[in-house]
Amino acid sequence: xxxxxxxxxSLGDRSYLISDGAVGVVVDPxxxxxxxxxxxxxxxxxxxxxxxxxIHNDYVTGGLELSRTTGAEYVVPTGDDVGYQRRAxxxxxxxxxxxxxxxxxxxxxxxxxxxxxxxxxxxxxxRGVFTGGSMLFGTTGRTDLLGKEHTEELTHAxxxxxxRLADELPPDTEVYPTHGFGSFCAATPATGDSSTVGEQxxxxxxxxxxxxxxxxxxxxxxADYPAYYAHMGVLNTEGPxxxxxxxxxxxxxxxxxxxxxxxxxxxxxxxxxAFAAGHLGGTLGFELSDSFVTYLGWLYTWGAPLTLxxxxxxxxxxxxxxxxxxxxxxxxxxxxxxxxxxxxGTALRSxxxxxxxxxxxALREKDITVLDVRQRNEYDxxxxxxxxxxxxxxxxxxxxxLPNREIWVHCASGYRASVAASMIDRPDRTTVLINDxxxxxxxxxxxxxx
Length: 450
Fold this sequence. Notes:
Structural class: alpha/beta
Number of strands: 22
CATH class of the largest domain: Alpha Beta
Number of domains: 3
Largest sheet: 6 strands, mixed
Strand content: 15-25%
Shape: globular
Mean pLDDT: 96
Helix content: 25-40%
CATH topology of the largest domain: Metallo-beta-lactamase, Chain A
Number of helices: 15
Strand order of the largest sheet: 1-2-3-4-5-6
Low-confidence stretches: none
């Protein structure tokens, strides 16, 4: 028996293919199911079952389409009123896939109906447990995604669910979570790349704290999460349509300029320093990296026309794959090529890129504004004296509060700051992007704590 990991690093999630002989079972697949199908072909298995641990809030599932494409049985926890045929499973149910046997454990907390799947050997032993958003590596799934009115109840439930897993499973049981590799579905950052139930008993707060301490700490540590989460549960409950990974239609420079002038969403995928060196005024810079889909989805006006600018078609295709994972299916086109070929008679804009050492020098020489676009908990932990803190996801609504003078923008590593710089860039303002690790600010005399 083999458990293969399908990593989606941009969303901080994992899907799994369990294979034994010619049989395959998939757990929590992402929307772009071609990766799963290719892996199944490589393993020489036929997918007989597709399992969901819960109705996901951070991505659009590929489970429904995968089950229809392969003829596999689609297994979803009971309790949610979904808009498609599936096998609804409850605590204690068994999924018999020939050589692969999985037992359902109800583990509420991340959602009300969340389940984990215990992978059993045919000899009676336990191979592992697929924990979804329950027991993660050194943390647990967040409990506030269904609304504030449910959060405290779900937090207590999460504590007992993780304890149940630890109580009922052997210490050497491998833990296979869906979330926790950078996902905002984790209550706090996860640690490590693999783990067992026994290892979690020493590090997981649900297993090392008393119940009230765990609840209080989790609630106090919950930070903001991406706005697009509000759409994921709805799409997954209704049943997502088949995925489309085809390239969007090409857009010529004149049409591109019209869209920019009309205030449409035109997103430049190029590397952040390339955008700073030369870009079309009125476009937004979202470098295509692991952070791309989270922050574009967070800031995007849901359903608005969206056009992409890329170096080449491969870059646009990669962005489309990322976007369909969160349900942004309708792209209005893309323009590719060297940026100077897309100007349509207008001049390119640019701004300076610097580091924290340069900021320290600038603050001694002139009167400037420092804009910190990290989340509030990051700012509270350590920040630059005198900096204005506006989290990136609040910047669109608060731009008018910024002073009309030179602004230096920073975050923790440069990505969020690069998006923010593109948002506030305008002809009558000097913008400087700090493309640097915030840890380097501590090597200067800039930082303090509150």
